[in-house]
Design a protein that fits this description.
Blueprint (H helix, E strand, L loop, with lengths): L3 E10 L4 E10 L7 H8 L9 E2 L6 E2 L8 E9 L2 H9 L3
C-alpha cells in the first residue's frame, strides 16, 4: 500500500464540550473517502477497535473501548510536495 501524507482536521465531542484538532498523517489515498478509516488511523486504533458510525450526522465512536466521546472528520487535504519539505525540515 502506497501512502501519502495528509492534513486532517477533526472534532471530538464529549457531552458538553467539543475539541477541534488537526494532525498530519500517512494515509492510503484510495481510502480517503472512508471517514471511519481516516479517524481510526489517526487515532492509532487497530482493526478490532476501529471507529464505527454512530449516527447519520457523521459522528463516529469506538464501541469496544467504553469511550463515550464522539468523533467527526472535518476535512482531509493532501499536502503538496513543496510543503512536505518544509514540514519535514521542522519535524512536523
Amino acid at each position: 500500500m502506497k501512502t501519502k501524507r495528509y492534513f486532517v482536521k477533526y472534532t471530538i465531542y464529549d457531552g458538553e464540550h467539543e475539541y477541534a484538532d488537526h494532525v498530519t498523517h500517512e494515509l492510503d489515498p484510495e481510502r480517503i473517502g472512508d471517514d471511519a478509516y481516516v479517524l481510526s488511523t489517526i487515532m492509532y486504533l487497530d482493526e478490532e477497535d476501529k471507529m464505527v458510525e454512530y449516527d447519520d450526522r457523521g459522528h463516529y465512536e469506538v464501541p469496544s473501548s467504553g469511550d463515550y466521546r464522539l468523533y467527526v472528520l472535518d476535512s482531509v487535504r493532501k499536502i503538496p510536495k513543496a510543503d512536505l519539505k518544509i514540514l519535514d525540515k521542522y519535524g512536523v
